[in-house]
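Predict the 3D structure for this chain.
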Amino acid sequence: MKEHILVMQNRHKRLIRTKQPWNMQRNWSLHLMLMPAVLLALVFQYIPMGGIIIAFQDFKPYLGFSGSKWVGGDNFRYLFLYPDVGQVIWNTLVIASFKIVAGLIAPLLFSILLNEVRLMAFKRISQTLVYLPHFLSWVILGGILLDILSPQGGMLNQFVVALGGDPIFFLGDGTWFRIILIVSDVWKEFGFGTIVFLASLAGVNPALYEAAEVDGANRFKQTLHITLPALMPITIVLMTLSIGNILNAGFDQVFNLYNPLVYDKGDIIDTFVYRLGILNGKMSFATAVGLFKSVVATILIVISYRLAYKLANYRVF
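Done. Predicted structure below.
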């Protein structure tokens, strides 16, 4: 027995000695393929971080970073005194929260229903059709929604008038605008979320369903006691990780659909920063708002990853 152990230890030592170190010359092609991604990250994500200094200056483009006056935390103090900031943060939280909740419930229910379909051709066609909107940009979908929801000849308002009602200005009323944002975002993205839940269901042991059927459980009880518990871990992970996106209510979508009539209910942090920084030229204040959002989002992401590890034993690092 001791001899066998010694032989195994010697073999393990030989394997360690013969393991070749990472050879830059031998793996140059792998480094070359990695370079475009590294350069993109440096150019568009890391180098622009130098612009954070604008948040602490009274920045003037013609003076540059070095010539602009240093004001310290004045922009951040002004942030909390600005009359519209509270409403903008509230709009962001409300819209993002409903998107997160609805964006979890819709793919969860659809994946359960699709999992019960036994006709594979219909199942694949349905999954493909609901997945397609994910690839359309909000520029295209925004134009489509503007035509469909138009109070003058829009398809949805034609249906309302045919039922005896009056045309509704969906994108000009704050309450309707929020509903349109949430519903259209769920419609666009729930097909992509369905893939995650279907992948989890693919790992469920079919013997569990067979045993439940032998015990007399119908399809509803099998779904209730087998399918739903199988989806709970991934649901908890997605829910906790989405906390980090609570301040991201979807700039592309809101920007392509909103107008001054719905600023009180539809203006979010990202569009607020865009209007202040790009349109009004208040670059320092807009940078301070964006930096404040980034710091809060970073804290929320750290918290969400800790929660995901505690609740579902999920970790990235």
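The longest strand covers residues 57-58.
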